[in-house]
Specification:
Layout: H1 2-9, H2 20-23, H3 30-42, H4 55-60, H5 66-94, H6 106-122, H7 124-130, H8 135-167, H9 176-190, H10 197-208, H11 214-228, H12 235-257, H13 267-288, H14 290-295, H15 303-308, H16 313-318, H17 323-347, H18 352-374, H19 388-403
Helix pairs in contact: 3-5, 5-12, 5-13, 6-8, 6-10, 8-10, 8-11, 8-12, 9-11, 11-12, 12-13, 13-17, 13-18, 17-18, 18-19
Length: about 425
């Protein structure tokens, strides 16, 4: 983390670190060049959140909800996946498939190893699950998960490093300009100019999978929001924040996790389910951390819904559990569970090798909501968590669900 902060705060002193040895790690396949040129010319991503429109355009285009704006990103990411499928077929026919040729070499192995060291600390569920298997099956699952897990860990680590900029121990040093530099570094990474080993590993990933840059940029927008915003007037505002800091992770992950070849669901619906899981996870984080956030002067709850429940910021700062608070929390938990229910529809549509860790994560996070209820909705002084025994008990259930065939809940309707 010190290295990340050093570059973000003092980029000029560290520019020389991006050596040609790092650049050599990033593959330049024909399909990648085609993909970038087509995407740049055809898909113009924009959240539209900070844009200023003329009066005429506002009249012609009435304001859209946060869900509508986020869904545009979902549609465009799904289009990118479909485009890559066509290009892979062309590459195979032309004999240009070089997807595995650039994954060798001591330097690249070092980059992957460094990513693994960091992710081993923050991806405990994946490792915990494999420990339940026999040694033979464990090795087989590791081999199957190899490509997906490694690439996903690289994505997860970038998200963790970005999140640490605002919420980490050195957050006081981070400014809007520092986040601008972090975004420039992201642009360089996607263009094949990695700054360090971690960037090089992620650069490899985004060159191999149809991962677009917009969700990454939107996550940085979430960090910007955290720097200047501590209240959310309604759920529409909160939804956008949840998308920025967590829903984006779902959109980043689906291309790596992969959609099952025999899935009957549309690509868009699978991405929507992944988005829902990210939103559900963040809503759960918010409900778990109400007291902790309040002590930092932050309230991540819809202000209008608090007022409707007869509650105010002062009630939250006092941290007293009342009947009004219990009633309010029941409604918030119900909404989070609705997003989890929507997410479940898409898990079975993922590649078989990817289902188990996603199911495990989903089931474990849902149990945090149960823990809040067990604590009598006291999320001011008590932190809801899932104990190790319950975690172990959930893993076989998640594994069983992962073995089930793809769900038909997201399947496109049959055409007569």
């Amino acid at each position: 983390m010190a290295g990340v902060l050093l570059w973000v705060i003092c980029p000029t002193e560290n520019a020389s670190f991006a050596t040609s040895s790092l650049l050599s790690l990033v593959p330049k396949s024909c399909s990648q060049e085609r993909r970038y040129s087509k995407v740049c010319s055809r898909l113009k991503f924009s959240t539209g959140v900070f844009a200023t429109a003329s009066l005429s355009s506002v009249v012609a285009n009435p304001p859209r909800s946060s869900e509508e704006r986020v869904y545009e990103v979902v549609l465009k990411q799904a289009a990118l996946v479909k485009e890559q499928k066509k290009e892979r077929i062309l590459d195979v026919i032309a004999g240009n498939d070089q997807s595995e040729s650039m994954t060798r070499g001591d330097l690249l192995n070092e980059a992957y190893n460094r990513c693994g060291d960091v992710c081993a600390e923050y991806a405990k569920t994946f490792y915990l699950g494999t420990l339940l298997m026999t040694p033979e099956r464990r090795r087989a699952v590791w081999a199957i998960y190899g490509v997906y897990a490694l690439a996903f860990f690289q994505l997860a680590m970038w998200c963790r490093r970005t999140d640490e900029l605002v919420d980490g121990p050195n957050a006081s040093h981070i400014t809007p300009k520092a986040l601008d530099r972090w975004e420039q570094r992201l642009d360089d990474l996607f263009e094949g100019r990695p700054y360090d080993m971690y960037d090089a590993a992620l650069s490899i990933t985004v060159s191999k999978y149809p991962v677009d840059i917009q969700p990454f940029k939107d996550m940085i927008n979430g960090m910007r929001m955290d720097l200047k915003k501590s209240r959310y007037k309604d759920f529409d505002e909160l939804y956008l924040y949840c998308y920025y800091v967590a829903g984006t992770v779902g959109l980043m992950s689906v291309p790596v996790m992969g959609i099952a070849p025999d899935s009957k669901a549309s690509t868009e619906s699978v991405y929507n389910a992944a988005l829902a899981l990210g939103i559900a996870n963040q809503l759960t984080n918010i409900l778990r951390d109400v007291g902790e956030d309040a002590r930092r002067g932050r309230i991540y709850l819809p202000q209008d819904e608090l007022a409707q429940a007869g509650l105010s910021d002062e009630d939250i700062f006092k941290g007293k559990v009342t009947d009004k608070w219990r009633s309010f929390m029941k409604g918030q938990i119900k909404r989070a569970r609705m997003f989890f229910d929507e997410a479940e529809k898409g898990v079975a549509e993922l590649n078989a090798a990817s289902r188990w860790p996603v199911w495990a994560s989903l089931l474990l996070y849902k149990q945090i909501l149960d823990a809040i209820e067990v604590n009598d909705y006291d999320n001011f002084t008590k932190r809801a968590y899932v104990g190790k025994a319950k975690k172990f008990a959930s893993l076989p259930i998640a594994y069983g669900r992962a073995l089930m065939l793809g769900s038909s809940k997201l399947a496109e309707p049959a055409r007569s």
